[in-house]
Amino acid sequence: MHRESDAVTSWDTDYHAPALAAEVVQLLGHAPLVLDGTLGGGGHVAALLDAGVARVIGLDRDAEAVAEATARLETYATAGRFKALEGNYADTDTVGSLEGMRFDGILLDLGISSHQIDDAARGFSFREGAPLDMRMGQDAERSAADVLNAADETELRGIFRDFGDEPRAARLAREVVRRRGNRPFVTSDDLVGAIRGALGARTGPPDFARLFQAVRIAVNDELSGLDRGLPALRDRLIGGGVIAIIAYHSGEDRLVKHAFREWSQACICPPRQPLCTCGANHAFGETITRKAVTASADEVARNPRARSARLRAWRRAA
Q1: What's the CA dihedral at 41, 45, 49, 51 to 10 degrees?
Q2: What is the pTM of this model?
Q3: Which among 98, 99, 213, 236 counts the fewest CB atoms within 10 Å?
């Protein structure tokens, strides 16, 4: 018999190491039918299927991820226990194969996979010479280069401030606009140069990672997509079904926390409003996790990218 740490490690691949996989299994491992809305390399799906989940449908907007997971989980697919689909979890109603389906469990592992970061051609990292792309799928309308070369100064300031928590966002936005007037942004070096030019030569990898992530969030419409997708996914759960969400960005985690809190209240009218007008007479369900679950020291040592993972879960009323 494998020890738990051995089992967790077995779900890691060169493509991606799933964060908080054991915790996800604890939450969803007994669900007969699960939707993994961010399939990636299939690590969480492998863990759930190994734990005994009867069927899992995996959804991802990245065609490469769908192909990778399909190959990895071919045995389960042949047995009728797994199916991979290309699509965006924020717009499940547009995925014809999911029409009318409801689930016992739903999982979202937000952010990007290890493979996407490590593949220089995808342009997610600040590795020297990487193209400014950052699109998770073909449904993204703009690349990172498009955003940096065409967005006005106000939009750029909002991206760096709201998605990158950058206090000097206005200065960086002005620097981007100034530099693109001389030469368009094409590679990671152009954005790194603008960051150093605006924020100083002492800026380093943590600043680059944070601000590249901000651009990626804008390119892929990640926060507004999450905000739009959450209620739709809630309504896909059967009574007693559980949704588990792993977030890596403070804005994502805040949206999830507030949504779960709102769904767990019988009335969602403003606190000072004298009369209820929302029409709700019972809560949709209850929050399972009192506070966000984080990775153990052992997991972070094995998978440093799990350091910022925050897992929250909610159960729909029966």
Answers
A1: 110
A2: 0.88
A3: 99
